[in-house]
Write a structure and sequence with these properties.
The structure is a homodimer of 302-residue chains. Chain A is mainly α. The first copy, chain A, has one domain: Orthogonal Bundle (Farnesyl Diphosphate Synthase), CATH 1.10.600. Chain A has 13 helices and no strands. In chain A, helix 4 crosses helix 9. Chain A is globular, with a radius of gyration of 19 Å. The two termini of chain A are 35 Å apart. At the A-B interface, helix 3, helix 5, helix 6, helix 7 and helix 8 of A face helix 3, helix 5, helix 6, helix 7 and helix 8 of B.
Chain lengths: 302, 302
């Protein structure tokens, strides 16, 4: 498989590559397509929400589960979760197979977001971020994050009870998610972003590194997990992982709203679409998934 | 199986039950036995250390992995890890099968310990605890804990690559560990201990609840995981889980050094030994594992 589909990367659709275009420029047909794409991602998000609300009811001890519930849904969305479901569908899997992994990815993201915004004595609040509203004090937010991380992985491990589950695939997904959210992924990005690691890299290079480790690797993980759970072939998993990495970086870097990054973002979009161009799949589905790098979609999420 | 072995619970050994005895009272033969028991647990700890040091080298990014390495080994020991290995051996499994789970339990414990001792703006330092030495600032300690949790579970998920591994058992162990270390286990205990949940329980009842959720459930988890990985029968797993719960509570409550808790501790020891009394296993091994509730062993760990 994995043949280059020239009709895909050259098609005159909303996902066609035009490295010369300004971010956000759009014509009427693109607006329609963009709305369709947004509704695709929004419908996946709604399903993940439904799943999470059922999995995470406010139950005793309420003092623990109420903040857990709140902070899970208070964290901004990451498209890494929806990408997990979309990738599963793209490789021909039933999207419901990816729902637990997509939820676990959101939970890891919500815990990381909560901890990154804890006001600590030795942590200057990042200049670029608006003041985060805290419903709880740091004590509760810290422990709640600590409860959310194992909860996400518990959900995954428990999903083995489902008749359609595959233990080896679930373990592989746990490996992917723990690696992406841990010390070689999101946590490394947070170290760099918070400037606590004495790193030599600065400026745009630093932003790129942070976006790679945070949004990039989380999206790469989401895409790979979806492909694994959907029963994708190894080359499909790797194509989707690469697409996720680039698309996640586009998402992260677009959110920085730094005009000096536009060229780099365009290059990453191109790389993302090139990966998909080598994917032997249904054109309509490829169009939907490729819309992840579109400015309107990025804007809806950031 | 699971017949009551009267020779065990009535034996005149260091693990015999004497609810009238003062904690720590010992005669000469008991001292010898206690030394043997301590060396048993110490040898398991040394193996876990060796495994962890190999699994967690100081590698790039060093700014992330150096604190991770340090905080993993700076946390006090929990016998829940060694109990995991001992339980595996008791049900007839090769103890090496439990080494990853034992290490993961230590990692969860180390992360929880690190986060519980973070100086937060709304967190009064617990009166009963000595001042904890911090090598790093709260910023680094927070993120390092966040890296340690997924790392422990990643090690477990990765262990499926071993030829002798059993994916279903590993998933079950991940479920056990995430549940015990999350919002219904250790995190719940921390909420209560830090007094941030508006709980109605106070005094000795509160201490008992905290010790149940923290040391109790972590030891129950350790014992159950060891029995699962060693291929124990369901009733063996449950006996060892109960033993672990009581033994962990004994460990936690003994550390409080509160004379008003002595009677309760003795009752828990009795319950722990009664569980083992219904276990159909080698007497010498049962003696070793039962030594977990002995005061000299508790003292060595707290």
């Amino acid at each position: 498989m994995a043949t280059h589909l020239s009709h895909f990367s050259n098609a005159k659709t909303n996902f066609s590559i035009n490295t010369k275009s300004k971010l956000g420029r759009s014509s009427a047909p693109t607006v329609v397509a963009a709305a369709q794409n947004q509704s695709y991602w929004a419908s996946i998000d709604a399903e993940i929400d439904t799943y999470l609300k059922k999995a995470l009811p406010i139950r005793p001890p309420e003092s623990v589960f109420e903040p857990m519930h709140h902070l899970t849904f208070a964290a901004p969305r990451t498209t890494a979760s929806a990408l997990c479901v979309a990738a599963c569908e793209l490789v021909g899997g039933d999207p419901s197979l990816a729902m637990v992994a997509a939820s676990a990815i959101h939970l890891m993201h919500a815990a990381a977001y909560t901890h990154q915004h804890l006001p600590l004595t030795d942590r200057p609040r990042p200049k670029s971020e608006p003041t985060v509203q805290h419903k709880y004090g740091p004590n509760i937010e810290l422990l709640t994050g600590d409860g959310i991380i194992p909860f996400g992985l518990e959900l995954l491990a428990r999903s083995v009870d489902s008749a359609r589950s595959n233990p080896t695939r679930i373990l592989r997904v746990i490996m992917e998610i723990t690696r992406a959210s841990g010390s070689q992924g999101v946590v490394d990005g947070q170290y760099k972003e918070l400037g606590i690691d004495g790193s030599e890299i600065t400026g745009l290079e630093l932003i790129e590194y942070v976006c790679k480790k945070k949004e990039g690797e989380l999206h790469a993980c989401g895409a790979a997990c979806g492909a694994i759970l959907g029963g994708g072939a190894e080359d499909e998993i790797e194509i989707l992982r690469n697409f996720g990495l680039y698309a996640g970086m586009v998402q992260g870097m677009t959110a920085k709203e730094n005009p000096m990054m536009e060229a780099k973002i365009e290059r990453l979009k191109e790389m993302a679409l090139k990966e998909l161009g080598s994917f032997d799949g249904k054109k309509a589905r490829l169009e939907l998934i490729s819309s992840l790098v579109e400015p309107s979609l990025c804007a809806a999420y950031t």
